Amino acid sequence: MIFKDPRIHPSQITPRAIVENRRQWLKTIALGSAAMGMGSWLERDAFAKTTAPREKLPAKLNEQYSTRETQTSYEDATTYNNFYEFGMDKDDPAKFADRLQTRPWTVSIEGMVKKPVTLDIDALLKLAPMEERVYRLRCVEGWSMVIPWNGYALSHLLNRVEPLGSAKYVEFISLADPKQMPGIKRPVLDWPYREGLRMDEAMNPLTLLTFGMYGELLPKQNGAPIRLIVPWKYGFKSSKSLVTIRLTEKQPLTSWSASAPREYGFYSNVNPAVSHPRWSQATERRIDGRGIFAPKIKTEPFNGYGEYVAKLYAGMDLRKFY
Ligand SMILES: Nc1nc2c(c(=O)[nH]1)N[C@H]1C(S)=C(S)[C@@H](COP(=O)(O)O)O[C@H]1N2
Ligand SMILES: [Mo]
Question: What is the pLDDT of residues 53-76, one digit of tens each?
Fold first, then answer.
């Protein structure tokens, strides 16, 4: 429920007003990022939903890594999405992702490792204790959410395949199946969606191999059955619906860098001091239920996770390595 403005008594709110307010809020967000050139996502259907059944995923809260900030509602987190394989509008993933077949599902972990393996999703779910981590995730478009994610540190999986000393990077490849993903027909990105991290970033305990959110298995529009969450980087580094994890010697070419190298670098650490070439990254709108009254808040370096990750970039010029 997005409308929670305390200045307005609930009796004043008709369902219609709620819908209008919701549309206004989404327009406000959209206008803030109008420079993205995505006019079409102004007209988001407020009630888009998938019909997929919801399944519990028990997890233990990790207090150290969890923020206590107000959480984004389940409804907003599952209807306002970026998942271009299903279309470019914010409501397309919620509308079309039920076509995605998330079982059976395997992930291949390969490349510069001693023990390459292809693991079934059920084996992956059991590989390490499931944690809940309430993370901020900030999109490069200028909005952010606070979501309780369920997963475990990616390092558990990487250690299991025994990386070779020559492995310097990890490449993450998402499913690209035009039969299940209508957005693939459009050449908006170079499919499959490819992302990457430096080995030490991938091994950092904050990097979460993610299977669920809000105590349930991931909804398809949020990247079921397995995705990455890298909370100190812009949201596009948090790849959805992964099928391959490949350790490499050379820095992998990412889909976003390939499409617009000046706009999206390999590192993409959240950095209020470095503007995107077409808009500032100094502030963001938090999607936390305050609707159009949500003030812009200041964006923190490394999205507020500097105490855990700033050391990874000691001595690097983060303007050059954006
Ligand atoms: N495969 C894939 N992963 C993706 C994307 C995508 O289009 N395809 N979009 C990214 C972007 S831009 C963001 S902001 C986050 C959004 O995650 P959410 O919809 O779960 O909030 O997913 C990221 N992961
Ligand atoms: Mo994003």
Answer: 899 999 999 999 999 999 999 999
